[in-house]
Design a protein that fits this description.
mainly alpha, two-stranded antiparallel ribbon, globular, membrane, Transmembrane protein 161B, transmembrane helix
Amino acid sequence: MGVLGLQLATTLVAASVLSKRKRKRNDLLSGSPNGTTCHSDTFYFPRSTTIHLKQSHVSTSDIAILPLYSSHQWLVDFTVCASCVYLINEVAYNCIIPWYEGFDRNQTKLSRANTKQDSSYPVSLNVRINLSLVWMTLSLWFTIRTLVSLTAIYFQSKNNATKIESRSSKFTTNTALTNIPSSECILILAAGFFFLVAATLILSLDGTLVDFGLQAAYGNLTFGEFSSSKSPIISWGAFNFILAVIACIIGSLFVYPGIKFGKIYLDTVKQCPMSVIKRIIVHLNFICPIIPILLWLIPITDHISNSLITLTHSNSLTGKPFLIIIINFMSNLFMKHLDSIRLIVSLAVVLFRLSTVRWTLQAYLNSAQDKLDKFTHEAGQTSNKEVQRLVASIFYCLNLVALQYISPCFLFLCLLCLYKNLSGLSWLPYDYHQQQYLYSSDTLNVLPSFVSNIQNNFTNYFLIDFINQNNFTSWSTVFMQARYIFSQIMDHFLFHGMIISRGIFGFLVWWTITSWQLMCFLGLAYHRFANE
């Protein structure tokens, strides 16, 4: 009850913060000016005139009048509150509560010693009500809805798409009345077909090239050969096809966010006044997702493990005890706690990308100067209105670009948190012997004996002599044993659910970051060679 009370308290606080943020956002929208009218005179000058833009501070009132501001702020506010609730509950589960329970651990051991219960179930799991997972699930839903709405823009007509990119008709040209080019829709559909084929190929290589555990997940979903019915709930082909369709949808949603990020990265690298440290951070921000992608590849992990084992027995480390300790620690960590390493590295990647969101948006705003530089190479004359319209078109899509950058990060973060909790993993490599035994193939062999043990216990526990009904101990014993049987049944289904979640969410986490990074590389290659 104490844990549930803490979760309810954090939930109420987060809901209160969201309510206040929504009220503040509505007041800001109602009090913001339109800002689309311009009363300056029109004058003309040669296009070859050099124009230098000056940086100006962008306030909240400036972006409040832009399209998609409400969607952007709601997604950020809700995801931040959900992450705070999740962080508080994780700290309480893993640090505070185990430390508090350590005081009466000896009494618990004595009480368990007095209560002798035989069970062939491999691992004792505690059924916990975790409200933070509800928050992360809702955040996942809002993120997917935002990505779908952003992708739907490219399937609308040009007039409808213009309303998203610009509120004023002054910001549109005569070509805005034509139909949308079919290449944008075709690109999304072609990418979806490519991701469908690629996901099918990756799923067929599970266990040989990638380490998802989908075969164990499917075996526990259908209860394997221990199911009473001969026909399974779902066939292996249908199971893979559903995952491939989900992967196809995720990849299609990442087409234009990835291409836009590739262009922004290219524009950022081209900026001349940049320090060496910032340039290194920009490069790392673009290529860092490759590390967690490689950690799910079996040949890579096997090669690293074998290399570390070879180094531990190498003669070159003779006389270097400190280096031997480090290599032994890394070898032990990599061989026994690979899942925790994947979680930590993936979390570090997504937090690193979120920390550079201001630099990314600033690089996008700086692209207005590049457009003006290309504009000055054209012949003829232009007006100040046309230059203002060119610069304003960049600023007007600021919320759109921000959503295209943070939405994949939020989607990956939510999937990662759900993968960690639903699969029974840990952020830090401790008590991993329990999880390692939980996911080993040998545990599946004890499931038939576990089911038969429940039936025998259910029969034996209720064959109690009820002749002496005045004995209250008999009734209390029946209640305790019935409660124990119920907990065994719940643990049994929880065991299956954790293995199913480990396979499915492991694939979704890896596929999300892989498809996003693949589209980023595509955007980089396209804009790199298209500008030449």
